[in-house]
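User: Design a sequence. Structure:
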């Protein structure tokens, strides 16, 4: 993942899904868990619930959006994939119960020319059981893996950005002497 070189509203980690349908809520579980960690300036986390047009404003405010969602793709439960969709048609076809809302948001962003860089992390769902907040064991394990990886990536991005800024400032200072 390549993150931007900015000071505010740089990266949004957006977990989506229906929290009350078992594995379908994996994105929400990731967002809630990642929100418990201290994140670097410029990185934010949002529980996007079941998506829809109310999320469009959030997409427009950030240069990069990391979207986490469940998918039913025939892979073993808990399989994690990283995609870089550029168009609504690039999203997996079997993308959960809120598929239409997210695709509509992406299409609207494309039309308005306000599309951020999007990374999509999908987790293969096992159990779409209504009225349960519990994840299947393999999907629960993937939550921890995703949270740890994103936390590390966000801090690495922040350190790299600030080291580069410090080095640039030092070069400018030495050039003026």
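Assistant: Done.
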């Amino acid at each position: 993942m390549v993150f931007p070189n900015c000071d505010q509203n740089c990266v949004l980690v957006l977990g989506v899904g229906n929290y009350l349908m078992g594995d379908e809520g994996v994105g929400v579980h990731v967002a809630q868990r990642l929100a418990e960690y201290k994140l670097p300036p410029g990185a934010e986390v949002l529980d996007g619930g079941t998506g829809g047009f109310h999320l469009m404003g959030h997409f427009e405010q950030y240069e990069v959006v990391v979207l986490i969602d469940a998918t039913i793709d025939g892979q073993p439960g808990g399989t994690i994939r990283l995609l870089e969709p550029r168009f609504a048609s690039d999203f997996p076809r079997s993308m959960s119960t809120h598929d239409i809302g997210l695709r509509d948001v992406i299409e609207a962003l494309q039309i308005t020319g306000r599309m951020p860089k999007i990374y999509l992390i999908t987790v293969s769902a096992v159990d779409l059981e209504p009225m349960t907040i519990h994840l299947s064991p393999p999907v629960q394990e993937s939550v921890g893996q995703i949270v740890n990886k994103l936390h590390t990536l966000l801090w690495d991005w922040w350190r790299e950005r600030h080291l580069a800024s410090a080095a640039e400032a030092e070069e400018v200072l030495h050039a003026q002497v």
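Helices lie at 26-34, 56-61, 99-112, 137-176. The chain has one domain: 11-176.
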